[in-house]
Specification:
Elements lengths: L19 E5 L3 H13 L3 E5 L2 H11 L3 E5 L1 E2 L2 E2 L4 H6 L3 E6 L4 H9 L4 E4 L4 H29 L12 H18 L8 E4 L6 H11 L9 E5 L8 H6 E2 L11 E2 L1 H4 L4 E5 L6 H13 L1 E3 L6 E3 L3 E6 L3 H6 L5 H7 L2 E4 L10 H16 L5 E2 L1 H9 L5 H15 L4 E2 L1 H4 L6 H11 L2 H15 L4 H8 L3 H10 L5
Parallel strand pairs: 1-2, 1-3, 3-6, 6-7, 8-15, 8-16, 9-12, 12-15, 17-18
Antiparallel strand pairs: 4-5, 10-11, 13-14
Helix pairs in contact: 6-7, 10-12, 13-15, 14-18, 18-19, 19-20
Length: 471
């Protein structure tokens, strides 16, 4: 990073923070001249006269840029080049007259630039500064791409059950609360069984809190899938040289959330050793990268989610009580699908449509037997299981109408299902079952089904439309 030009001192910009440069060159006089000029420009420099010393110093010094001579007493600079390039180090090769072909090969192997000897020191400095700027732009671009990957996709809550209506109301109130003040937004904890849609709820809350700005990042951190040896670096970031193979500085996922949303999924899987550090972030709203003394603000909205009983984990000594109470400021509980029977058909049709669009398939409908199978099943895997079963059925069905056979749902235990079903039974569900049974008995003849039920064909059609029954 370069400061503004100071015309009273030099024609070249000065570095606002010291970059590290390694000069691998066996001509001592030339090397000293380069060292003196680069140090004046703001670089922290080291010098190696041989290939072996250059390799050893690079591992310890961790340079940002290497000036590499091709002809060295113990070998060719090309032998060291791949080791530098793979670690993201900017390399400028130096060649004597007649060795341009070596320089071209070096560029092919990943060198950033080359200079022919004899080298003018001012030209060298310009080349170095140009490559440093390019490296910074690349880092900025990589971060921008990473940030865009984390941008939240459009989501919606499908369903009209009381549980879903209450969820919409909770999300709306939390979003409104965040927009009423400039204070740090409250932490939200989303709890629910696996597959109930905790990720969807988090994304919807993020979208509801953006005040029309859809570009703010949504950073999803799956605490269960991060490798134990990398999780601290991934979350908090690190500075160059903070640990072995830390060849460059990198912002962590907490920092990457910026002024958007940090979603800590499966928070119950976070190791105890990191729970204290996370608690510190939540309380102080500051994060410090590994190997750094500088703290950075954390303005992001923080949402955590889990399918585990954190209170029980606290009692078992597997989760910090202070972190639990800090997370449990505002809690959203997602109902399992078996308690949202009214939403099963709405969700099923939504997933049918999504699968058709994704794979460019013809329109499909659900047969009466398929609808009955969907309503009778208890969905232990919740919405995720429903989505997978519907997608599978649409992809494998050879007919435009999906049948119960296409769904291939596992058999449920009659006694257990009967007990659950009586609890869930509503007038609408009972009416829907009557319509489906009548249609199946009448082989989908609407007039005959209406006659069996003792209602008119018009009434039959009205009630079929009401319950979303299509033939």
């Amino acid at each position: 990073m370069f400061a503004q030009k100071n015309h009273s001192e030099t024609n070249h910009p000065q570095l606002t923070q010291r970059k590290k440069m390694l000069i691998v060159e066996d001509e001592a006089l030339f090397a000293r001249a380069v060292l003196k000029r680069m140090q004046k420009a703001g670089f922290e420099c080291e010098h190696a006269e041989t290939l072996q010393d250059g390799r050893a110093i690079a591992k310890q010094f961790l340079p940002d840029l290497v000036l590499l001579d091709m002809r060295l007493p113990d070998g060719n600079g090309m032998d060291l080049l791949p080791e530098l390039v793979v670690n993201g180090i900017t390399v400028i090769v130096m060649t004597a007259h007649g060795e341009v072909s070596d320089a071209v090969n070096a560029i092919k192997l990943g060198a950033n630039d080359y200079l022919k000897k004899p080298i003018d020191l001012e030209e060298l400095l310009l080349i170095v500064q140009k490559n440093e700027k390019n490296a910074e732009l690349k880092t900025s671009l990589d971060y921008s791409r990473q940030r865009n990957v984390h941008t939240a996709e459009n989501v919606s809550l499908i369903g009209e059950s009381p549980a879903i209506q209450n969820l919409r109301m909770q999300i709306g109130r939390i979003a409104q609360l965040g927009s009423m003040t400039d204070a740090t937004p409250p932490t939200v904890l989303i709890v629910g069984e696996t597959g109930t849609g905790k990720d969807v709820a988090a994304r919807l809350l993020h979208a509801s809190c953006q005040d029309g700005n859809s570009n703010k990042p949504f950073v999803h951190v799956d605490c269960a899938s991060l490798p134990a040896e990398l999780i601290e670096s991934e979350l908090f970031g690190h500075e160059k040289g903070a640990f072995t193979n830390a060849f460059g500085a990198r912002p962590g996922l907490i920092e990457a959330a910026e002024d958007g949303t940090l979603f800590l999924d499966e928070i119950g899987e976070l190791p105890l050793t990191l729970q204290a550090k996370l608690l510190n972030v939540l309380e102080r709203r500051k994060v410090r990268r590994l190997g750094s003394t500088k703290e950075r603000n954390v303005p992001a909205r923080i949402i955590a989610a889990t399918n585990r009983d954190l209170h029980e984990m606290v009692n078992a000594g597997k989760f910090r009580s202070d972190l639990y109470y800090r997370l449990n400021v505002m809690t959203i509980t997602l109902a399992p699908l078996r308690e949202r029977a009214d939403d099963v058909l709405l969700l099923a049709k939504h997933f049918v449509s999504l699968t058709e669009k994704r794979y460019g398939l013809q329109k499909h409908t659900l047969s009466p037997t398929a609808i009955e199978a969907l309503l009778n099943y208890t969905w232990p895997g919740n919405v995720r299981e429903l989505r997978h079963q519907i997608s599978r059925a649409v992809l494998l069905s050879t007919q435009p109408q999906i049948t119960a056979t296409d769904l291939a749902l596992p058999a449920t235990k009659p006694a257990h299902h009967a007990e659950n079903y009586q609890v869930q039974l509503t007038l609408d569900i009972a009416e829907k079952h009557m319509l489906l049974n009548a249609l199946e008995a009448a082989h989908n003849n609407v007039s005959e089904a209406a006659r069996q039920l003792g209602i008119t064909r018009m009434t039959m059609r009205y009630r079929m439309d009401k319950h979303g029954i299509t033939l």
